Inverse folding.
């Protein structure tokens, strides 16, 4: 089974306090679901159509594990806390090998 990568970008942040509360809940929820944070923060550089937006990269053992993390009660609670405090783009992709 191939590993999977959760790629989350924040297109805009409307409420910094909600974002902080989300991060406090989302991080532990991802780790409890087997996620391993590989990178997070602003890009060092962006090229072509790239945008300098906050990005998080989390590795999971499989797509199913990443989807289960998203659907977990702990992560859903983090999303409720965020409550329209940010516009995000979230993708889960399977590793090539």
């Amino acid at each position: 089974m191939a590993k999977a990568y959760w790629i989350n970008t924040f297109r805009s942040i409307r409420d910094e306090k909600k974002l902080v509360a989300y991060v406090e809940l989302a991080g532990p929820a991802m780790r409890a679901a087997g996620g391993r944070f590989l990178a997070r923060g602003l890009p060092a550089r962006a090229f072509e159509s790239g945008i300098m937006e906050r990005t998080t990269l989390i590795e999971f053992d499989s797509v199913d594990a990443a989807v289960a993390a998203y659907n977990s009660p702990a992560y859903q609670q983090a999303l409720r806390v965020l409550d329209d405090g940010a516009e995000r783009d979230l993708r889960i992709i399977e590793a090539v090998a």
The radius of gyration is 13 Å.
